[in-house]
Amino acid sequence: MMMAVISTSLVWSQASSSSFVVGCTLQNLSEEYMTMLKGAMQIQLKKYPNVKLIINDGQGQAEVQAAQLDSFIAQKVNAVIICPVDANALTPAVKTVVDAGIPCITLSADVAKDVGQIWIGSENQSGGETEAKYIAEKIGGKGNIAILRGPLGAFAEQGRFEGYERVLKKYPNIKVVFDQTGNWQRDQAMSLMENWMNTGTTINAVLCQNDGMALGALEAIKAAGKLGKIRVAGIDAIKDALDSVKAGALDATCFQDAIGQGKGALDLAVKAAKGQAIGDKRVNIPFELVVKGNVEGYYSRIKLPN
Which tops the pLDDT comparison, 113 or 4? Predict the structure, then answer.
């Protein structure tokens, strides 16, 4: 696992008990990437026989996650892990956890500003840049593209779109003809893609902020008989996406190390709960471009160990 870190030393008071409780809330457990994070933490939990891990489903709603954080404070857990669904809306809730003296690890996504949390994940701007650069080159630096975003305001949505913008401003002959949110959902992306194609507007490529939406867009493209005529890329490198890249349908995805993120988040939470110094305030695990030529090497990296 490759990591780039920004060093800052943080220390919390050691929990009085020899056993620890870690409360976790993940964005939406109907999303495959979230279930991978959950699985990675549960595997890593085997290292810590004296740790209880409580994992809650945020159901894709900031207010649900905020209530879950309040509950963790009331339960006096020793550390909190959150993958926030909304960067702005959940900043005050994360600050409340930190102000209560409870170490807070933001996992994969982050909140809008530094309120004392520790973050582990992959820098989304870099992922967006990697994806957009690949697609821009594949369409020869010119043409029409569509963008499928995650929920507006989500940490990953904002960062990945910023990465798109950084790349696309270097390609004045590429025009964004459609730009909407598919809320990370495959069915919503499929519906949007159908609607866009029905307008008769030429679309040369689709930038999708996650693999679920990329696969949904591909379903619509295939149904319209345009498979291979419209380039599609996604982010996360879930198994279905790897299979699609291998088959030559999906052009590319960007590997985001869910296993490394999930395991690392639990390690950080336990370390902080024990009162041990946390030397790295931000832990970045870089994205990696996955295409047909290198896809085989990524199957083992998304498989949870027994």
Answer: 113
